[in-house]
């Protein structure tokens, strides 16, 4: 009862957020020999700083960043990614071959089936049918050309044969061909829908077959190169 102690500096060791004026620091009490309050536990490490709250809130990140196996984890992920890329590159020959064959088949169907049928019907029916067919098929056609070109580049990375780059260039050339040659003709035909019997509309409708023939020639060239060197 007669012991006195000076008011400690603000310290929260062992008491959480309780004001230090009412409950002084445990380390001061332990040094002064005072009896601890009932129910309280002494802080064996009063000056130990707890880890940041960020580590406690995200234990998975804490384990990933502060374990000795972190380097092995990164190394394993990089090896796994490399194996996936190697697998894709190894299958590039098959992707290039089959996607180019599909592009050739689509071009043959457009020229000898769809366009041939349009030339035997009235212009007021042929032009809307052409525009609707082009609207639906342009995305799939460009996708096949893109897949074939990229797969040819991957096949070159695997085989180191320059002819795969030539075939890839022919397939990828079909994409700007569609944008610069095919698309402007389709846009002109949109404005001639109401004047489908005019001479200009008939000329543009007839030129559509030649445009598709040029795109088919690019696809046939790329597919031929792919098929020839895939057999080697």
Descriptive overview:
The protein is mainly alpha-helical and about 230 residues long. It folds into three domains: about 1-50, no CATH class; about 50-90; about 90-230. About 70% of the residues lie in helices and about 0% in strands. It is built from eight helices and no strands. The chain is elongated, with a radius of gyration of 38 Å. The termini are far apart. About 20% of the residues are buried. The model is unreliable at about 30-35 and about 55-75 (pLDDT under 50). Keywords: Membrane, Transmembrane, Transmembrane helix. This is DUF1772 domain-containing protein. It comes from Adineta ricciae (Rotifer).
Low-confidence stretches: 29-34, 53-77
Helix tally equals 8
Q: Tell me the Rg in angstroms.
A: 38 Å
Strand content: under 5%
Cα separation of the termini: 101 Å
How many structural domains does the protein architecture include? 3
- The run of helices and strands is HHHHHHHH
Assembly state of the chains shown:
single chain
Alpha-beta content class: mainly alpha
Total DSSP E strands: 0
Shape: elongated
Whole-number average pLDDT? 74
In helices, the fraction of residues equals over 70%
Question: What's the story with the biggest beta sheet?
Answer: none
Keywords: Membrane, Transmembrane, Transmembrane helix
Protein name: DUF1772 domain-containing protein
Transmembrane segments: 163-183, 204-230
């Amino acid at each position: 009862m007669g012991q006195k102690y000076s008011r400690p500096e603000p310290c929260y060791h062992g008491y959480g957020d309780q004001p230090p004026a009412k409950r002084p620091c445990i380390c001061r009490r332990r040094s002064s020999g005072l009896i601890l309050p009932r129910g309280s536990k002494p802080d064996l490490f009063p000056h130990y700083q707890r880890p940041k709250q960020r580590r406690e809130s995200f234990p998975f990140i804490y384990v990933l960043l502060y374990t000795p196996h972190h380097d092995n984890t990164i190394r394993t992920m990089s090896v796994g990614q490399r194996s996936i890329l190697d697998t894709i590159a190894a299958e590039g020959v098959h992707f290039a071959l089959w996607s180019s064959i599909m592009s050739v088949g689509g071009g043959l169907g457009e020229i000898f089936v769809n366009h041939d049928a349009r030339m035997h019907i009235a212009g007021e029916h042929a032009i809307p049918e052409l525009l609707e067919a082009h609207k639906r098929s342009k995305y799939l056609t460009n996708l096949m050309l893109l897949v074939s070109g990229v797969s040819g580049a991957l096949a070159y990375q695997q085989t180191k044969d320059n002819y795969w780059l030539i075939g890839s260039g022919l397939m990828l050339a079909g994409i700007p061909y569609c944008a610069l040659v095919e698309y402007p003709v389709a846009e002109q035909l949109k404005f001639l829908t109401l004047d489908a019997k005019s001479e200009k509309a008939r000329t543009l409708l007839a030129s559509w077959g030649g445009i598709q023939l040029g795109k088919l020639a690019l696809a046939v060239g790329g597919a031929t190169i792919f098929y020839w060197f895939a057999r080697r």
